[in-house]
Amino acid sequence: xxxxxxxxxxxxxxxxxxxxxxxxxxxxxxxxxxxxxxxxxxxxxxxxxxxxxxxxxxxxxxxxxxxxxxxxxxxxxxxxxxxxxxxxxxxxxxxxxxxxxxxxxxxxxxxxxxxxxxxxxxxxxxxxxxxxxxxxxxxxxxxxxxxxxxxxxxxxxxxxxxxxxxxxxxxxxxxxxxxxxxxxxxxxxxxxxxxxxxxxxxxxxxxxxxxxxxxxxxxxxxxxxxxxxxxxxxxxxxxxxxxxxxxxxxxxxxxxxxxx
Amino acid sequence: xxxxxxxxxxxxxxxxxxxxxxxxxxxxxxxxxxxxxxxxxxxxxxxxxxxxxxxxxxxxxxxxxxxxxxxxxxxxxxxxxxxxxxxxxxxxxxxxxxxxxxxxxxxxxxxxxxxxxxxxxxxxxxxxxxxxxxxxxxxxxxxxxxxxxxxxxxxxxxxxxxxxxxxxxxxxxxxxxxxxxxxxxxxxxx
Lengths: 260, 190
Known about the structure:
The complex is a heterodimer. Chain A is 54% helix and 2% strand. Chain A is mainly α.
């Protein structure tokens, strides 16, 4: 078993050396850095046309922050609107790929976008990452939002059920709108979204080919990666199977019905 | 390194072909977050492209959240964004420019501006009603830029929307009747 307590290695790939306007030593991609270095100063009327012609989303973020710092709120908002137009396909794709039920996608996008705007408009140094790698920051914001949603769902109480005086069964679940029809191609991600925390992670690691246990102590296994025992991993996988079996059977039936 | 730095570097490393296991080995305390990021990244690669309807829905959410978070712009600034002067904007919504000027300067109390006007302004300026409400909000009248030929600046009193409509000399009678009726309508008609 490798010593997991060894100190972290030096700068990660993609790390270090400064960038224009960055207070810390983060490194932008070369094409982004040169585009930002080519922008006129904040007071220059040529800044807006230059931002309109910019290729990288990071340049637009940098422009918003630069204009915001210079007090040009109107122009900052104009650039933010360009960012909305340019980034929406990417946001849609990234938000849509998070492991949450389809019904929660809009909530997820809203939470992630609020975080994005708050951090883009906040010119404090710790929010500079957005002008270093916009799409990765968006992935992290969406992952945070997905985790928050999963925690909320985990605390929701189960549906109340009972029988009326006449002996008819009732359930709160009957009051829900019809579930969204799931496309067959999205069935597996949608099924995985039904699982909680480490149960879902164990299933994902298994799909990546990691074993539940290994005779080779140096080989990473699901238990070593999750930091739990082999027995716990077995319990996770058993719980996943129990959750997924009825859900997948129902999903397959629905998808057949949609296909028919 | 902070969690964000590690996750950012991890996403970068994934694109360069590094494995999830090697990163969990380096940062075991962040295993859960790294696994979630890797799983979402894999699904992102496999997912079909977003449809036009999905993109439009996300763009609408982005505009709405921007209006919540960005520092509020005044009506005049929102008009500039839409390429309209206050006079042109007043004409679009069927109001006289003196009233819109008072609204922009908060001489008219924001809470008395009827929902119907907020809705029409949002339509004319292509923004959300929340953004218009944010533009109208403020504690008192804005008098910056005004010239006073007296030793002390005069006190500027605030009016209700109905008072501003009633006292306007340039508003056409049909528009006056319409806006006075709107001012009497319940606040939830927005």
